[in-house]
DNA sequence: TGAGGTACTTAGGATTCCAATG
DNA sequence: CATTGGAATCCTAAGTACCTCA
């Protein structure tokens, strides 16, 4: 077997890699012994441009704070945010508050941001048009800064930090119908930040002169380096600063996640047996538990925690409403609801007859806004799962089903002689099936249609030149001089044959590309690759089939999954 | 048992990068 | 050499899960 992945050399008797160590178990209790880092840094202060806002054709000069917020709005103009009702309404309220009730500015509709918007546009152009050396220098100084403070030291090992710059101020872009979309996200100061470092390690210096961190703690039961209250959702949300995906903290948890899913694989037959039991003959609560778990297992639904009034109204399995389900003939149901990120789940599937009957009963006598599963909660469902395995919870089913599906699909591969590109396409097809199972979507790229047409045209051209080549070849065969004997056509029969082969592969590749593009129009492949499919399945498959790993895992994924790179070709999920 | 808090994973869109193309 | 479009990465919102406390 060729070694297709370049790996750090292992030294005899010395193991510096966490995934080769034995002490992974106590990670669940104590995460580290020493932790050292440079804290967080803050986005640059706002620099005013002193361009006025016009109100009833009158120039209004703004304070720096008002101007900054007005400038945010200016860059929203022309995007769909500008006309999004909640966003606009919330912004107006927030914005007017900055002026006070006796100020003449009383309505967003009458505000004219044109001059500021022009300025924003010009600045954008200026930034884009910077000379390349300047851009390069900027990039380099950014890298240097990152090199200096973008790393922490955990138990003596240098680790990348994922987010050292705290979130800049701006307008809150909540997704879907988020009740707080358009709120002002205020600027964070050192006084908002709690720092976590080792007791005997240096406390990071506050980067803003004359200011100080809110607090410094030494909590080694957690993996975060710092946290702050979210400026918009401060009542509930906390933002953490963590190490990057390549770190031991993240990698080890990731590995444990997949190991848990593999354990579920060993139990799944018993679990399915048990929930079918519950579906059939138990009391109402158990009927709901069994039926909900059936949907989670079969359709890879999220568990669906309750949400508060201050969030977009989305659902998962346990929070499904009567209006989200409809019943079709042949034991089919249609689920239609907005899930995480307000992405629509819309699917018609046949279900087990008992499930179908249960669901019909759950709906009986309820209004459209009432809960389908009114007798259970996500906690009670997870409690039920704990009876099978102490660390089992609903989300493990998504991981398990995604990984099992990938393993099964890749297991069908038996085309070792394929071109690498075709092998990659096979992999992508499997990836897509998983993504569809998990309902990972993306919006159709802008001017997708135009680009498809362009590619179609190109393909047509390629067919035409293939035709010409074949005619040219016939010329040789009938011993006539080909009429295209000039310029761009090959001068020998052999070369013509070669050119034909080249043209054919080129057409084939183009067709593959075209099909992939269309198939992937609305399917997001990345999410399942990053979060759901055990990377060892992919690594083993690549090794077995001589596909270089970088064809399927870009750099960031190779370092995230460094622990999986040593997987043996014979490994199975 | 339910609400709120905490810590972590998962998610799509925006932005940036980079290589192919004219 | 500039443009452009797809891939890769960045950003931060939005989930899950579990704990504590009344």
Automatic annotation (TrEMBL):
- Which GO molecular function, any one, fits this protein according to its record? DNA topoisomerase type I (single strand cut, ATP-independent) activity
Annotated SMART domains = TOPEUc (SM00435)
Q: Which GO terms describe its biological process?
A: chromosome segregation; DNA replication; DNA topological change
Q: Which reaction does it catalyse?
A: ATP-independent breakage of single-stranded DNA, followed by passage and rejoining
Pfam short name (any one): Topo_C_assoc
Enzyme Commission identifier(s): 5.6.2.1
Q: Where is the active site?
A: 532
Tell me the ranges covered by the DNA topoisomerase I eukaryotic-type domain, including all copies. Answer: 171-546
Indicate the enzyme's highest-level EC class. isomerase
Q: Which PROSITE patterns match?
A: TOPO_IB_1, TOPO_IB_2
Q: Which UniProt keywords apply?
A: DNA-binding, Isomerase, Topoisomerase
Please, which domain of life does this record's source organism belong to? Eukaryota
* Family as reported in the entry's similarity comment: Belongs to the type IB topoisomerase family.
Indicate what this protein is called per its UniProt record: DNA topoisomerase 1
Species: Stentor coeruleus
